[in-house]
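> call design_seq(struct)
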């Protein structure tokens, strides 16, 4: 019996006579220590445990068994991510969602009623929809990139594939990044299919969660829309997976089980022999490499649906047009905003930095406020002025006196966050109605819906926000987008920095002018000649991607080589140092694999734990997992040292 615990393997139990018909996949209750746990029958015991020591299974739950593809998927993800299979099963059980289904549950989920007539599709959309529908109808494993510029109508196209899947009596899953904030798309699904999809993400209530889980497990819920964790739910009859915005780094989980939701979705499709659709306006290099090698198919939607044109992108060279002192909006951007408001248009200002200022210092002595638990500056937030750490829960009011020199009134806020941009906009445009959209102002999906509804209704003239704003919202009267610091994402030496910056800015730009009025986008940059800025200015996505791919290939970096990271952490820096050295000495000599490190992580202290990292670099076909298993297995780790394995890392902090 596999239990939802991060422990190695399944446990052996006796099967009492009344339960002699138990089969793999059955949900059962078993004693574990002093507790009773729900687990899943995983197979026959090997018989190497003394039967006198075995305890009996207590009961079988009245839930349909976990289907074989979902069980194989659990084992596969565990092996790939080098995590205990119980940790994967825990995600399948969705917290406490299955409890207490001892009696036969009533059917959950609502059957479809009054679905809207399918929308009229453009010829390009219709062709793509027909190709996807055919794959769904035929069944079998396939991966298709649905590649279309923002506003080209990808959702309508994959909705046709969903309709075909539901018509076959199978379940469909749509994975979305940061789904809690994506309310508009849910309304579209509800209208299209005549029934609300089951929602699955960390913010849904316990009762909704139970209802959704049960409908998924019994097969009565046809359509599920969820965050990456929805992939692990116990689908009775899954027939199609859509990964929307497949390039988004929000699909990567970097906590507990380290996995990439898109890559795991592809594996799930292969194991279950079902089609997977990856949709994006700015596909990842990983996906494009798979298209080029012929492993994935590609469908292209070249135009904006309904005749809307892509926005005009202008680079503002901040050296040539510097903002005034202690201001962040350059004269050309200010005049564009003035003109937009005069013409009754809406505007957005984008800065991917929460809070008021990223650093506060004392002018008298130079003291900089740093988090006591992390190697990171504290970020100033407005309201009553507070200093917050963006990596841990540390938060304190700004003190009256400098803690280093006791000076009063000498604090100086360095640089802008979105709150400071909103302050400047309020000063410059006192009559404009301005709202701020960040994870600090949007606590839940209801707050997000209210803000989006206000923007749609024209009750907001200027929305100032972080990348939260970049997501699929559709504001017809939005005609101007200003990117305050287009260079921000390029700093930091991250492997995917340029790619991610391009994707993010392209997404933000895509918010503009989505109906009949032509949108304008202004990018403030200190590096107007940088390939990312040049590609954005002339709209040359493919040229940018070709150049980026050539560079990665040259250095054998993903997707043309493989990476894994080992992150060691401990509250004790000395012990951590010893373990790092011992591991470095124990690296097995293996052709085609290089181990770099240990090095202090860029966040060398995080939540009170010191951190050191190894990076493992290998050829595309190397089985990194076997190498890591052998290597780590040769060293004993003290209890205080935590070892995290990140296969295919996306963050390097
Ligand atoms: Zn001071
Ligand atoms: Zn901190």
């Amino acid at each position: 019996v596999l239990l939802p615990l991060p422990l190695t393997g399944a446990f052996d139990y006796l099967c009492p006579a009344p339960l002699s018909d138990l089969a793999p996949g059955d949900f059962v209750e078993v004693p574990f220590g002093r507790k009773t746990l729900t687990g899943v029958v995983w197979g026959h015991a090997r018989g190497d445990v003394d039967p006198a020591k075995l305890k009996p299974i207590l009961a079988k739950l009245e839930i349909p068994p976990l289907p074989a593809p979902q069980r194989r998927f659990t084992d596969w993800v565990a092996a790939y991510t080098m995590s205990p299979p119980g940790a994967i099963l825990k995600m399948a059980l969705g917290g406490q969602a299955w409890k207490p289904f001892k009696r036969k549950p009533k059917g959950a989920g609502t059957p479809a009623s009054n679905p809207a007539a399918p929308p009229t599709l453009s010829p390009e959309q219709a062709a793509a929809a027909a190709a996807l529908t055919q794959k769904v109808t035929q069944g079998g494993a396939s991966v298709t990139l649905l590649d279309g510029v923002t506003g080209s109508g990808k959702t309508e196209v994959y909705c046709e594939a969903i309709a075909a899947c539901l018509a076959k009596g199978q379940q469909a899953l749509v994975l979305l990044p940061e789904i809690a904030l994506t309310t508009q798309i849910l309304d579209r699904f509800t209208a299209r299919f005549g029934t609300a999809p089951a929602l699955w993400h960390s913010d849904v209530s316990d009762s909704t969660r139970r209802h959704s889980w049960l409908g998924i497990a019994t097969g009565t819920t046809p359509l599920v829309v969820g965050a990456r964790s929805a992939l692990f739910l116990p689908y009775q009859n899954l027939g199609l997976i859509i990964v929307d915005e497949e390039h988004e780094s929000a699909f990567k989980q970097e906590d507990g089980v380290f996995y990439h939701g898109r890559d795991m979705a592809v594996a799930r499709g292969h194991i279950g022999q079902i089609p997977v659709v990856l949709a994006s306006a700015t596909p990842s290099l990983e996906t494009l490499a798979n298209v080029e090698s012929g492993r994935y198919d590609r469908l292209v939607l070249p135009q904006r649906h309904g005749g809307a044109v892509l926005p005009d992108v202008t680079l503002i060279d901040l050296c040539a047009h510097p903002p005034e002192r202690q201001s962040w909006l350059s004269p050309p951007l200010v005049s564009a905003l003035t003109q937009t408001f005069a013409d009754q248009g809406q505007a957005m200002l984008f800065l991917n930095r929460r809070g008021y200022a990223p650093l506060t210092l004392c002018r008298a002595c130079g003291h900089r406020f740093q988090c006591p638990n992390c190697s990171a500056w504290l970020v100033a937030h407005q309201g009553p002025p507070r200093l917050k750490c963006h990596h841990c829960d540390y938060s304190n009011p700004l003190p009256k006196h400098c803690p280093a020199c006791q000076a009063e009134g000498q604090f100086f806020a360095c640089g802008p966050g979105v709150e400071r941009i909103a302050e400047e906009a309020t000063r410059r445009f006192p009559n404009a109605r301005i709202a701020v959209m960040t994870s600090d102002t949007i606590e839940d999906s209801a707050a997000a819906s209210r803000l989006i509804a206000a923007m749609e209704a024209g009750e907001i003239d200027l929305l100032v926000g972080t990348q939260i704003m970049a997501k699929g919202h559709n504001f017809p009267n939005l005609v101007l987008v200003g990117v305050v610091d287009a260079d921000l994402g390029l700093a930091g030496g991250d492997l995917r920095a340029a790619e991610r910056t391009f994707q993010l800015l392209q997404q933000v730009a895509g918010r503009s002018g989505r109906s009949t009025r032509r949108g304008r986008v202004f990018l403030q940059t200190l590096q107007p000649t940088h390939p990312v800025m040049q590609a954005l200015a002339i709209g040359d996505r493919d040229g940018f991607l070709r150049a980026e791919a050539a560079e990665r290939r040259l250095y054998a970096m993903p997707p043309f080589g493989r990476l894994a990271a080992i992150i060691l952490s401990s509250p004790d820096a000395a012990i951590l140092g010893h373990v790092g050295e011992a591991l470095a000495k124990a690296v097995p000599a293996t052709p085609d694999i290089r181990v770099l490190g240990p090095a202090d992580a860029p966040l060398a202290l995080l939540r009170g734990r010191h951190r050191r990292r190894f990076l493992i670099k290998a050829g595309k076909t190397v089985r990194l997992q076997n190498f890591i298993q052998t290597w780590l297995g040769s060293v004993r780790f003290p209890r205080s040292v935590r070892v995290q394995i990140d296969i295919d890392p996306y963050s390097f902090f």
